[in-house]
Amino acid sequence: MRLNLLLFFLGAFFVSSAQDTVKVNTTISPEEQAQQNYNDGITALNKGEGQLAADLFSKSIELKPDFEKALYNRCVAYTLVRNYPSAMSDINKVLSTSPNNIEARFAKAMVFFGQSQKDSTNRWLDNCLGIGKHAEAYYYKGIMSYQAGDYNEAIKEYSGAIEVKPDYAYAYNDRASAKRAINDLTGAIADYEKALSLNPSFVFVYNNLGSVYRVSKNYDKAIEYYTKAMTAKPDYLIALNNRGAAKLESGKLDDAKKDFEEVLKKDPKNSQAFNNLASVALKQKDYKKAKDMAGKAIELNANNGAAYFNRGIARQMLREEDGSCADWKKAADLGVSAAKSFMNTDCN
Amino acid sequence: MDIGIEFYEQGRKEFDDFRKGLMSDKTLPVSTRDYLHVGNENFKSAQSPLMDAQKFNPKNAKLNYMLGFIRFFEAPASKEALGFLSDAFRLDPETEQDLPYWLGWCYQLNVNWDEAIKYYNVYLGRLNLKPKSHVVEIEDVQKKIAECNNGKIFSAKPERVFVDNLGPAVNTQYPEYSPAITADEETVIFTARRDNSTGGKKDSDAGFYEDLYISTKSNGKWQPSKLLSKNVNSEFHDASAGLSPDGSKLFVYRHSGKDGGDLYESTLFGIDWEPPVHMNKNINTKYHESSVSLSFDGKRIYFVSDKSGGFGDRDIYYSDMDLKGEWGLSKNLGPDINTKYGEEGVFMHPDGKTMYFSSQGHNNIGGYDIFMSTLENGKWSKPVNLGYPINGPDDDVFFVVSGSGNRAYFSSSKQGGYGDKDIYKITFLGPEKEPLLSTEDQLLAMVANPISNLKTEAAVEIKTSKLTILKGVVTDAKTNAVLEATIDLIDNDKNEVLATFKSNSATGKYLVTLPSGKNYGIAVKREGYLFHSENFNLPDNADYQEFTKDVALKKIEVGSTIVLRNIFFDFDKATIRPESANELDRLIKLLNDNPTLKIELGSHTDSKGSDDYNMKLSDSRSKSVVDYLITKGISAGRLVAKGYGETKPIDTNDTDAGRQNNRRTEFKILEK
């Protein structure tokens, strides 16, 4: 499980389910010390300092071995630092004493989720939902379905999360993405807009909304939303690259080129921007430049399938047929399906 | 594509016909008859005094008209022709009634469609003053206006192609044209009029007589072309008229002067072509027969003739081979293909379905254009113009397409070549390939790392041939000596031999084209050897592919084994499927021809399933084959059935292809 994914999960998790802090008396007894350590652990956890939090919860548990809240939160801390065996040990102890603790069941699902154990994750999410409605459990069921490519099921699960928690902006965003995947672009736009209304600071939702408009070939709207994303977060290069793509697709080649060059000013090693400049050059029939730009994209990221694909086109037009076929083969190996088609039509 | 105006005996085309008319002084415009000596050479002699006169008085409309007219027939798309004719029209539009016609045609040949239409309409207006007197001319100019309108449409959306000269190994300062190419594009045979032509004589047009030349590819490069032997080339006109897909049969056009030109067939024997044999009366008539194309199985021939009874001018006909191996009565391809105008340069693609031909009578751009039609359920589809710049306002003929369908070969007088007509290769690029943009979206809120979201444009629409080319060399398994062998191509589903080919006696090379949509059995046979079998089950959607399969034939001797690739069983059963009949018949013939042979029939499985199950299945299958042979009269004492299960794989069991190879029936000679 990616660290940032966990950060999100834990962030959302604490908002809804971190155990309450405990009031501390001025005279320190062992129990009070345990409570103090526990509270410090929660502070560390909220700062994302997982290992420190785990150490503090451990001190607390040493002083008070039956401190269930500390065990639970240490599980969360261990999950944050990807110490899954320890996290699993803690949550199992919690569940042995409180088997119907819905948050503990969800936490166990998250430990499995962190280890990419899909079946176990789903089983414990179901266990969680078996004893009550739980917005995050529905939400993660939605993620599991989305990642499995079952977008209709994902929409159902995200809807469950929204039913429990009507202001669940993340669930709206993800449901919008699932709707986009099944080409329900109108539904996707409505959900992304709802997510933004609930949390206007979600920069990535502006970007996603821009992309739905781009897919719909509504390039003016696409450019508008990409621009909003960049206004909110000027170093958000994803949106800048995407805006360039929308401009290119709408035929504004020079404007597109400016966006891609702006990306490279801020991040000179941005392989995607080099590839997009290659795309501009291809459109302008400047095949030598396209070949050079795609070559730079490949130098920066040897797995950039789109860059191999584009360099293949440029090489074909430069009459370097062997090179173009080699590039398309590489692109096909990297999963670019159109390259396979070119291999068949142009490389016999 | 500019083919040029020079004429040669095989393919008189629009301009050539017109010029011949001029030479006979029958269609020469009245206005020029008094001033011009007719004929090619005399055009040149007339030009000089006219040029002197024009220098003296450049504002004489009639003089400009005459010079423009002469230049038009020497170089129809030339700036000089256009200049003289434009000046004539500017100075006095009425100087000759047909002036706007020639000017319009000149613009058409310069791909200036709007100007061409403008002048054609001026001419049409003049003709319409007395329409009953100008029925033919009105039809002609209306056709030309329609061509220009087509040209506007096609040239607005040009086809994307590369056009490459085949280079100095093939092309010279002399004319090279009418290429014929094998399906694998390894051999090209073409016509040329070079100074080393057989006999070294020149025709009345001052060019050398036509001969056939050949060039082969080595390491992807054309090797210097060679004159075919005197078996094929005579001291008169000998031109390439077509080549079978496997390169073993050559069709030659000859014109002896006694008839309109006939077709001959020559077979490759070893390294030389046998003397061409005059094709029978179902093909050749007293009229003009020119280009030929053979179907992939060699059982149908398509050819062009201007014999009577067609739809007008030259038409495309076909003839099927009868049981005696003779070409039967020819049939006209019908009005979907043939028009009242000329058709020429027929080429049947080895996919068995696609025909390319040239015509003056469909939605043309000008002169002969190249069209494509496909045979669907016994009916030819509406011909499709291959578009600009493959087709241009000039004649576009003798167009042959590679087995893959991605390339074509033709001749052209375009500038930048080695002189006169050269042979060029077209590479079809299909629609413009859209670049692939790198974009990203953060589709799942919890995934801060973006998910890469590559946008993929639709694939190009080039249609590759649904065709498989199988080629290789047949040798003796022990001595490696090359062998001439018979290759039967069998339709397993129908249990019939579709075609029989031979490997070359000198090189052992063979080439077989297999259109998709059949389960093919292939049997390579030679007396004294065990036959070799291959199976290609090609579904309708199987794309173009090339296989090189060298075949080493084994002598009939104790210990020799062969794999019987065309014996099929029901899934997980020992029941022999009907499509195995041809292979089994071959086996029976072998046993009957060699009555002392005792053989083992061994059956093998892949590794799927348990060892025990596979052993039992293979045992049952080998017994099924033996039982079948016994029912066909083979003595049981000569046959041993043995199941090997999965114990003797000849390939990996980790892939579908490997497992398919491992599932096999073999026979081994135990006693001779």
Keywords:
heterodimer, A: 348 residues, mainly alpha, Serine Threonine Protein Phosphatase 5, Tetratricopeptide repeat, 20 helices, 0% strand, elongated, disordered N terminus, B: 672 residues, alpha+beta, Neuraminidase, Immunoglobulin-like, 4 domains, five-stranded antiparallel β-sheet, 11 helices
Structure description:
The complex is a heterodimer of chains A (348) and B (672). With 348 residues, chain A is mainly alpha-helical. Chain A has helices spanning 3-17, 30-46, 50-63, 68-80, 84-97, 102-114, 118-130, 135-147, 151-164, 169-181, 185-198, 203-215, 219-232, 237-249, 253-266, 271-283, 287-300, 305-317, 321-333, 337-346. The longest helix of chain A is centred in the N-terminal third of the chain and has 17 residues, at 30-46. Mean pLDDT of chain A is 89; it is low at 1-19. With 672 residues, chain B is an alpha+beta fold. Chain B folds into four domains: 14-156, Serine Threonine Protein Phosphatase 5, Tetratricopeptide repeat (Alpha Horseshoe); 161-428, Neuraminidase (6 Propeller); 466-555, Immunoglobulin-like (Sandwich), CATH 2.60.40; 557-672, 60s Ribosomal Protein L30, Chain: A, CATH 3.30.1330. In chain B, helix 3 runs antiparallel to helix 4 and helix 4 (61-74) runs antiparallel to helix 5. The longest helix of chain B is centred in the first third of the chain and has 22 residues, at 135-156. The chains are: A mainly alpha (348), B alpha+beta (672). The interface between A and B is large, with 58 and 35 residues.
Oligomer: heterodimer
* Percent helix range of chain A: over 70%
**CATH level-two architecture of the domain at 1-96 in chain A:** Alpha Horseshoe
Helix content of chain B: 10-25%
Basic shape of chain B:
elongated
CATH topology of the largest domain in chain B: Neuraminidase
Largest interface pair = A-B, 58 and 35 residues
Name of the CATH class of the largest domain in chain B = Mainly Beta
Question: Terminal Cα separation of chain A, in Å?
Answer: 43 Å
Output the CATH homologous superfamily of the largest domain in chain B.
TolB, C-terminal domain
- Biggest sheet features of chain B: 5 strands, antiparallel
Query: Biggest β-sheet of chain A: count, sense, barrel?
Result: none
E-strand count of chain A: 0
Order of helices and strands of chain A: HHHHHHHHHHHHHHHHHHHH
Q: Tell me what portion of residues of chain B adopts beta-strand conformation.
A: 25-35%
The total tally of domains of chain B equals 4
SS summary, helix count of chain A: 20
